[in-house]
């Protein structure tokens, strides 16, 4: 164990060439530097956050949803059928016409009945608007983002070598615990098409927060966290308005969120943050192994930002050209009422054109990120 610890905490990997662990372990009087052991506090805190979220959703968010007339609904369950269930679980959830014909002959069912079974089977495990509202309400408050902004102002006003303050320590540990809890809850929350992207994102976030803390890169770390948190609460607030069917408020928040996302993720982050961590730091301390890893993770996040903004822009363009959006590009929900738009012989679902335009651009607010984790993090 000692040999592994010595290998893992090798100074030549973690620190610049002129810095040692002893320099950080024995600071001047009144000066505190980060220590790796501080980060273990995040694990019990992550469990506490996860439990608080469950209690909040059950006892606070759920009554709020009901007060807004967002009732928990139970979709129609598919008729038990061993043959179709086996196809659904092991082969395909969306059978093509040839497979539908084969199943129709095998079961002596009409093709339309087989289609309906698969539609109901896909929808029966999908969450209702009530569930999605409860997942988003805590994150839509923005309390943590506001606290991070206050701490950031104080940290960035410091001069001289970066030091650890109590406020910065609590901000770091809380952020780390928050993203650990998101990584765990991602397996129990609503599944989205970008599940893998979000998992990579959370993993990169946890690694970046930990690396920046251990390496005493807390100034740039706090800046990156705050820049990324700036638009998160807008996204969640927009989804809440969408679920509550406050159309105009939803559209307004979507516009503000899109602008904030573009400015913070595609302007401030690459122009100021990446430029500082990749080029200015090269001139100050020079590159070293963990420096390369740290900046590689920052570049991974920038790539994710581009992907997400592409999805946001795609939703926006659809809204402007068609006056509505047929479906959130990330959402796997086919219809909140259990009907689908690909069944022309049945009643039109919520993604069908509204005769009086009442649907409008409801889906705008879930632009590319209709998930509780959506918590873009770093």
Summary, kept brief:
The chain is an all-alpha fold and 378 residues long.
Note down, in words, how this protein is organized.
The protein is mostly helical and 378 residues long. 62% of the residues lie in helices and 0% in strands. It has helices spanning 2-8, 11-14, 21-25, 42-67, 82-90, 97-107, 111-124, 129-137, 143-156, 166-185, 195-214, 218-229, 232-243, 247-284, 289-322. Mean pLDDT is 77; it is low at 324-377.
Which tags fit this structure?
378 residues, mainly alpha, disordered C terminus, 15 helices
- Give the distance, in angstroms, between the N- and C-terminal Cα atoms: 32 Å
Q: What class would the helix/strand composition place it in?
A: mainly alpha
Low-confidence stretches: 324-377
Q: Major sheet, described briefly?
A: none
| Binned strand content | under 5%
* Run of helices and strands: HHHHHHHHHHHHHHH
Average pLDDT number: 77
Can you tell me the overall shape?
Answer: elongated
Q: How many H/I helical runs? A: 15
Helix content: 55-70%
In total, the number of strands is 0
C-alpha-based Rg, rounded? 24 Å
Task: Record the SSE blueprint.
Blueprint: H1 2-8, H2 11-14, H3 21-25, H4 42-67, H5 82-90, H6 97-107, H7 111-124, H8 129-137, H9 143-156, H10 166-185, H11 195-214, H12 218-229, H13 232-243, H14 247-284, H15 289-322
Helix pairs in contact: 4-8, 4-10, 6-7, 8-13, 9-12, 10-11, 11-12, 11-15, 12-14, 13-14, 14-15
């Amino acid at each position: 164990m000692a040999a592994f610890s010595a290998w893992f905490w090798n100074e030549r990997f973690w620190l610049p060439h002129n810095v040692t662990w002893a320099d950080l372990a024995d600071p001047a009087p009144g000066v505190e530097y980060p220590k790796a052991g501080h980060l273990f506090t995040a694990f019990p805190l992550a469990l506490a956050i996860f439990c608080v979220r469950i209690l909040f959703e059950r006892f606070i968010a759920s009554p709020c949803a009901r007060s807004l007339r967002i009732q928990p609904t139970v979709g129609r369950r598919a008729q038990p059928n061993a043959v179709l269930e086996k196809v659904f679980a092991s082969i395909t959830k969306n059978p093509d016409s040839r497979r539908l014909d084969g199943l129709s002959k095998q079961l002596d069912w009409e093709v339309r009945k087989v289609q309906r079974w698969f539609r109901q089977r896909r929808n029966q495990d999908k969450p209702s608007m009530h569930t999605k509202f409860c997942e988003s309400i805590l994150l839509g408050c923005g309390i943590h983002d506001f606290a991070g902004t206050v701490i950031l102002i104080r940290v960035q006003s410091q001069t001289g070598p970066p030091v650890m303050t109590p406020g910065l320590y609590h901000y770091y540990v809380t952020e780390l615990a928050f993203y650990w809890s998101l990584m765990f809850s991602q397996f129990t929350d609503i599944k989205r098409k970008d599940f893998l992207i979000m998992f990579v994102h959370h993993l990169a976030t946890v690694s970046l927060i930990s690396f920046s803390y251990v390496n005493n890169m807390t100034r740039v770390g706090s800046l990156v966290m705050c820049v990324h948190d700036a638009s998160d609460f807008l996204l969640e607030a927009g989804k809440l308005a969408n679920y509550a069917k406050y159309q105009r408020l939803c559209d307004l928040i979507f516009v503000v969120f899109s602008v904030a996302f573009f400015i913070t993720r595609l302007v401030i982050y690459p122009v100021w943050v990446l430029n500082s961590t990749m080029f200015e730091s090269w001139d100050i301390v020079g590159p070293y192994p963990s420096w390369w890893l740290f900046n590689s993770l920052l570049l991974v996040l920038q790539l994710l930002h581009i992907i997400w903004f592409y999805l946001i822009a795609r939703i926006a363009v659809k809204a402007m050209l068609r006056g509505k959006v047929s479906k959130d590009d990330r959402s796997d929900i086919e219809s909140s009422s259990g009907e689908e738009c690909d069944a022309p012989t049945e009643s039109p679902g919520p993604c069908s054109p509204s005769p009086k335009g009442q649907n409008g651009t409801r889906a705008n607010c879930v632009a590319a990120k209709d998930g509780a984790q959506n918590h873009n993090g770093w």
